[in-house]
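User: Hi! I'm working on a homework problem where we have to compare a predicted structure to a textbook description. Could you give me the structure for the chain below?
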Amino acid sequence: MIDIAGLTVFHTVLSFIGIFLGVGAVMKMLDRDVTGKLVKWFLVAAVATTVTGFLFPFKAVTPAFATGIAATVTLALVYIALYIFHLKSLWRWVYIGGVVFNIYLLFFVLVAQGFLKVAFLNALAPTLSEPPFAVAQLVMLVIFVTLGIRILKRNWG
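Assistant: Happy to help. Predicted structure tokens:
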């Protein structure tokens, strides 16, 4: 039997490690280091976070489950782009886009959990369908799309 409380703590710690490493990875990628150690450690943390997310009991397809599927697919593409196609041609775009997308997913969940768990945020959007939550997520999306475009421009070719 899985200890849900322990799994939750472990999964949360992995998520925060992934977020921390993701910030560093973005900084490195902006500095034209797309395959450095920090980026690779982020990918390890992202895989670990995704895997532990699937260890929770499955009752229905939820937003968390859909996020895990999106992370799994894009992480698989990232590893294929890096280790099979060696970032050649459009695979460089797949790799960079996939890394940035997975960092975004961790921040997406961070914002969602913030609105669920932090009292003053929860008061603004208790069901996550209210405008403050949508605005916060839209801001995060714009930030990560902008970062992704900047990283692509700096690392193309």
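For your comparison, note the following. The chain has one domain: 4-155. The two ends are 50 Å apart (CA to CA). Good luck with the assignment!
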